[in-house]
TrEMBL record:
Residues 83-318 form the Trans-2-enoyl-CoA reductase catalytic domain. Monomer. Keywords: Fatty acid biosynthesis, Fatty acid metabolism, Lipid biosynthesis, Lipid metabolism, NAD, Oxidoreductase. InterPro entries: Eno_Rdtase_FAD-bd_dom (IPR024906), Enoyl-CoA_Rdtase_cat_dom (IPR024910), FabV-like_NADH_b (IPR050048), NAD(P)-bd_dom_sf (IPR036291), Trans-2-enoyl-CoA_reductase (IPR010758). Pathway: Lipid metabolism. It comes from Alkalibacterium indicireducens. Residues 325-381 form the Enoyl reductase FAD binding domain. It catalyses: a 2,3-saturated acyl-CoA + NAD(+) = a (2E)-enoyl-CoA + NADH + H(+). Residues 4-78 form the Trans-2-enoyl-CoA reductase-like NAD(P)H binding domain. Its EC number is 1.3.1.44. This is trans-2-enoyl-CoA reductase (NAD(+)). It comes from the Bacteria. It is an enzyme of class 1 (oxidoreductase).
Amino acid sequence: MKFKQNIRGNVALGVNPLGCKQEVLNQIDYVKSKGHYDAPKKVLIIGASSSYGLATRISLAFGAGADTIGVSFEKGPKSERNLGTAGWYNNIAFREAAEKEGLVAKNFVTDAFSHDAKQEVIDYIKNEFGGKVDLVVYSLASGRRTDPDTGETYTSSIKAIGDKVVGPNINMQKEEFFIDTLEPATEQEIADTVKVMGGEDWELWMKALKEADVLSEGVLTTNYSYLGTELNRPYYGGGTLGQAKADCDVKADNINKLLADINGKAQIVVATAVTTKASSVIPFFIVYCIGLYKVMSEKGTHETPIMHQDRIYREMIYGDKPEYDDEGRLRPDSWELDSDTQAETEELIMKLNEDNFNNDMTAYDLFYKEFSNLSGFMVDNYVDEDITIDELKSWEY
Ligand code: NAI
């Protein structure tokens, strides 16, 4: 069977399952090359199948020897034309590699927003995972959420607040640079985005886990935020997504109160801009990234999700180099926010136009490769093999 990369706009539709496997192995090799570090051994990751959540899981398992439970929402193969999602294959590749090393790697493919998912995970922790977890990572990104109590489904919108935003954007399918407009959100759209991407579900998870008594004394829970800079504030920090992230700060305070009696802590981690399926559909963001990555690559500070998450857990959270801001948020994004980096990024992206956005002046090629890697294409060390749809269907997550 031949695997074909298929991009619609900035959304990847095609997948190469074998490439996904190799990409997971590459990330495992990266972590192993850094050696062992001490960190919790019983970890739950909500949103574990791609990008930041997957990278976190790989770092903790292969860097610190953690047993992990991963929750994700992915689809398996149905036919040669419908091979499912990359995260499905990432889950399988991760489990196989972790089990080879004697680690527990349990995958739940289910709707994390539901009460049932929480109960299933709690039952598993109680009955098969030793009874407690020491670290809960919340790394979910979704466009929709069904409220588990009312059954109502909410859709998030990536929109500006107040004034519309007009600026350059990129369409990777057409390799086109164009001027895009982001309309301001209505009050309802802002509220719905907070409902989907804010911290409500994170808090529900922590309440359910606490009530079920499956959190260890001193448990830590992390949630990945993005604050960005003046260059992307109009469409991120100052837009609907920024409101959702601000809600996570509020929910972190609630969770800190909830966990006080077991000395637990909720930690917002303000992560750096990286190429992920979620970030590729944020209007204008790719333009920022291809400028930023060029500057950061030249300074030796550009990171992929695995590099960033491994540094966060190895050096910051469980190491001796944490950096916090005045609100107590962890700030691994300080490399992105570095004033020279930002000034040079601004200068570069101001020069971009339809003729030069994809030449050596920018990191367009790097962004495109990282984007392709997410679906198993353009993967380093990839070796093509013949595989049938029936063989793919027989892979178990
Ligand atoms: P992603 O789209 O690569 O991964 C999202 C994960 O959530 C996947 O594992 C997916 O299966 C899971 N998921 C989605 N809906 C689900 C559901 N209903 N039930 C169970 N699992 C579900 O996202 P990415 O970019 O790794 O984002 C993770 C977090 O990191 C988000 O909070 C995002 O805002 C944050 N972040 C991202 C940055 C970026 O540049 N990409 C920068 C800083 C923070």
